[in-house]
Amino acid sequence: MRELKASRWILFLPLLAITLGASRAQPTQATSPPPVTAATPQKPPTPEQLGDSLVAHQRYQAALAAYSNAPQMTADIWNKMGIAYQMLFNPKDATRCYKESLKLDPTNAQVMNNLATVYASLKQYGQADRMYRKALKLDPKSAIVLKNYGTNLLAEHKYNRGWAAYQQALAIDPQIFADHTGPSVQNPSNVQERGAVNYYMAAGCARAGYTDCALQYLRMALDEGFTTRKKVEADSQFARLRDNPAFKQLLAEQHN
Q1: pTM to 2 decimal places
Q2: b/e string for 153-170 if b means 16 or more Cβ within 10 A?
Q3: By three-state DSSP, how is residue 78 classified?
Q4: Is the pLDDT of residue 94 over 70?
Q5: Mean pLDDT over residues 169-196, rounded?
Q6: 132 neighbors 149 (Cβ within 8 angstroms)
Q7: I need a surface site. Which of 6, 64, 113, 193 has the fewest CB within 10 A?
Q8: How many CB atoms within 10 Å of residue 94?
């Protein structure tokens, strides 16, 4: 079986990923920039560029001030301001900015995903569901939206549907649950919800052949009381682990 470093996979609960880009303009042909000489004047950064730089350094309050100086408030800038507010734990203003972005670009799945993460963080799971579904109608192959949607469904105890969304996300991007450098927010949850996420992640890792990953998630699911040794033994999703010494030891510990 393939092995994957567990440290890249193990999250207490999958984070809700926020997407940065609101603009969907088609890429243009790359051209070589003119040579820079000592006499070439350097243009100062635009307010948006300055804000992006400040966000990269996690200076969100300063970034908001920079974005607000932009000569024109675009959908992109409103989305970025929403992210900055969300990183400052200000869901009210984050929601306002995401909605302003959608007024200018009402069919942007990325901004819909971001707005849904605010609803989820406030445990407004029904509103988050609706927003994730709208985003998926526009971008059905978005692994990030599918992952977030799956986590939201698990938080509602809709385990089969949540796991189905996770499977779709993993099929598109097998590394979707690995650490990412983009912004993310913690999804609120109780022990039961964390146990459910960990159990279904263990099953997914086992089916994909990632033994270490499966064992790490399975241990957390057992420790959180979501499942039992007998249920794990009877679950065909863990069939390929049954001869693994570490798997046997884990179940033996639960028996004892």
Answers
A1: 0.74
A2: bbbeebbeebbbbbbbbb
A3: helix
A4: yes
A5: 72
A6: yes
A7: 6
A8: 25
**152 vs 162: CA distance, rounded Å:** 7
pLDDT of residue 187: 61
Helix (H) or strand (E) holding 16: strand 16-17
* pLDDT tens digits for range 116-126: 999 999 999 99
Whose tokens are 């798997």? That residue is 247
What are the phi and psi torsion angles at 17 (to 5°)? -85, 135
What the block records as the tokens of 236 is 């065909």
Please write the tens of the pLDDT for every residue from 29-61: 444 555 655 666 788 999 999 999 999 999 999
Q: Which of 217, 220, 180, 221 is nearest to 202 (CA)?
A: 217
Provide the residue type at 128 as one letter. A
Question: Is the pLDDT assigned to residue 27 strictly greater than 70?
Answer: no
DSSP string, 202-231: HHHHHHHT-HHHHHHHHHHHHHTTSS-HHH
Closest CA to 143 of 119, 116, 117, 168: 168
